Structure formats: structure tokens, C-alpha cells
Amino acid sequence: MQSVLLCSAPLTGHVQPMLAIGRRLVESGTDVTILTGRKFRERAERSGIRFQPLPSTCDYDESRLDDHFPGRGRRPAFLRSRFDAEHMFAAPLAEQYRAIDEAIDAFDVDLVLAENLFMGTLPLVERPVSDRPKVFAVCTSPLMATSVDTAPFGPGLPPAASGLRKTVNGLLNTGARKLVLRRAQQVADAGTRSVTGRGAATFLLDWPLLADKVFVLTTPGFEYPRSDIGDRLSFVGPILPPAPADSAVPPWWTRLDTDRPVVLVTQGTLDNDDLSRLIEPTIDALAGQDVLIVATTGGRPVDAVRRNAPNLIVSEFVPFDLLLPRVDVMVTNGGWGGVHFALAHGVPIVVAGSTEDKAEVGARLERAGAGLRIRSGRPSSAVLGRAIDEVISNSHYRSRAEELQRELGELDSLDAISRQVDARTT
């Protein structure tokens, strides 16, 4: 029986796609183990996946990040991303690598399948091919790898459109490595040296390019073209969880039977501690307008929304598979999964986010023409109102979203990945 080890940082948006891959592989008769945070043990075992916990030194609960990483929440978006690169992703590298190595020996692993922010894979891919299992990388976020055609990952700068722009991006990439992420790279080098005796052979965000295969969880129409690394990338489409089999429509569902545009606003399940950042100003912008507002709190109690309006519905959770076919525009802070849920249903989007990878998601959406990007994580109601009105009234955005919907509909990520796993481990 083939043996596959899945590796993921203990973040829901990264673990969920890996569990979905694992479930598909289990169904095909593969022995699957996942190395990740203890919070995900039950979900893994319920899927028939063996669970291997990360060492406590590199495990954390995403709902209490400020407890694990003091001072993180006080940093503005740019500095928070730099902090995360150093403390959340680079610092655990050595302990993650040792855990991978132990799991490879314990479970006689044929293939390691790791998401792109699991930096413990970096020392592994640097080993000779004869001295390690095959390694596949899964990009569960916008592609972070360095290219001559793109600016450094983070601020959401556009890709190169000319030779001059490539030169500028080259300088910016050098600056990112040597200045902005210098400390994170030093931490990655030190971690790699502690387990291999030498520093990292590549920039920490570029480790997937050393893997035997790189899966990008989107369509080429939503990513930037990269002339220098494109042949190493397999675009397989997103991995979106289906609606629960027992999903029941809420009592307010009949209110969706309306001729008014329906606007969905969400801050996802992670960056939703402060609903005044996006949900409340969206409500302020649309209260009294000829639209129906559906606000989902991502698990927060509905009374956490301190607004009320006759055209407003507030709910903790609504299965997107059921809701999105009824939605005219989605307003979001730019989570990778949520944006792809909307595009998979042909729904245009307004993105307003600045933390984690959200500026990059917004930049890609804007370039794809399937919505508008607001360059703020805390936009005013006036700015939101204008953006939402533009997306509703201009059919171009809906047309582009539907084109991406067709592209995504032609891709089956789980099938593509499982076929490659079978081909490489048989």
C-alpha cells in the first residue's frame, strides 16, 4: 500500500484542502497520515487519515494567535505579514523538519505532500532525491514564489507589463529578500543549518519550486503569468468544501425570493474579531437601499453585529453552496477560499482586505476583472457603497466572474492531485 504524508501549518484555510486531498487518497486505497496541529485530530481521523501531531513547540491555535505570538495583533498589516513570516512560519522550520523525518521513518512514507507555508519542508527538498521521498507542494494561497514577472509577495503590486517593469520588480524582489524579509530568511537559514549543517539553498517563499511537483489551487486566469517558472506549475483549481449533507435552509430563506440585488458580506472565520472593519460599514452603506444584505459572521454571535436595518439578514453561518447562486455581489476581506467560492458560482466580488495574503488576492481579482479591490482593510461606508453599486450596475464584472466560473468548472483539483500521487508512488 502506498504511504503519503500530508503536512500543514495549523491554520484552517491550509489544513482543510489537505484533509480533502487525504480523504480522496484514502478512498483510492492509499495509507495517509497528516502532520499538523492537535486541533485537527478529530477531523483527520473522521476522514480515515492517521493523525500525527506537530511538536507542541510549533503548534498553536489560530483563534488565539496573540496568545502564542504576543504583540502580533498590534502591528499594522505590512508589519504583521513580516512578523508572521518570521515567527509563525520560519521559526518552526527545524522542529517541523524533525517531525517530518520521524514520520517518514515511522510510516515508511513514499510521498510527502506539503502546503506552501509548511516551511519544515525546505530542508527536505534540498536533500538528494535518492535520500528522500518524492515531495509535492500544494499552494493553498496565491502563488508566493519569486518570478521576473512579478513583484514581491505581500503588498499586492501588479505583475510586469514591460521590460522596465521587470527591472523594477527585480529590484523590489531583491529588496524584499535583503531588507523586508531579511530577518525571516536569517531565521530560516539558522533553522535549516541546525538540521542539515548548512543554510537554506533558496529564499524561504521559493521552496515549492524545489519540489518534484507544484499544485496551484486556482485557474491560470486568476493567477499572474510567470515566464520563468510556469512550466513547473500545475493549475488544478481550488478545493472547496461541499455543503454539509444535513444542511437546512434558515427560516429567513424565503426573503431571498426577491427582485432586489442580494449582497453578501463576510469577514471569513479568522479575521472576524472586529466586525466594524467591513461588515458594519457595508451595512451602513446599503441600509435603506433597494438591495437585500446578508451578513455572515463566521461563527461570531449575530448580536456581535451592532447594526440593524429592514433590508438586513445576519447569520452566523450559511452554506455558500446554497447561498451563492442567489447572490449578486459578495463583499469580503479577501480570503482565498471565500473568493474562489464566489468565482465558482460566477459571483463578482468587492475585496477590502490588508492582512495576511488579502492584498494579493484583491490584486488578482482586480486584474482578472471579476470585481473591485479597495486598498484598505477598514474602508468607509461611502467607498464601499460606490464599489458595490459599480459592480452591480456594470455587467462586465459578472461576465468576467462567469468566465472564471467556466474555467474553474473544467478543473478537478482532487482528481488531478490523486492521479499524480498514484503516478509517482506506483
UniProtKB/TrEMBL annotation:
GO terms for molecular function: hexosyltransferase activity; UDP-glycosyltransferase activity. Keywords: Transferase. Residues 282-407 form the Erythromycin biosynthesis protein CIII-like C-terminal domain. Transmembrane segments: none annotated. One of its GO terms (biological process) is carbohydrate metabolic process. Residues 13-78 form the Glycosyltransferase family 28 N-terminal domain. InterPro entries: EryCIII-like_C, Glycosyltransferase_28, GlycoTrans_28_N, UDP_glucos_trans. Coiled coil: none annotated. PANTHER family: STEROL 3-BETA-GLUCOSYLTRANSFERASE, STEROL 3-BETA-GLUCOSYLTRANSFERASE UGT80A2. This is Glycosyltransferase, MGT family. It comes from Rhodococcus triatomae.
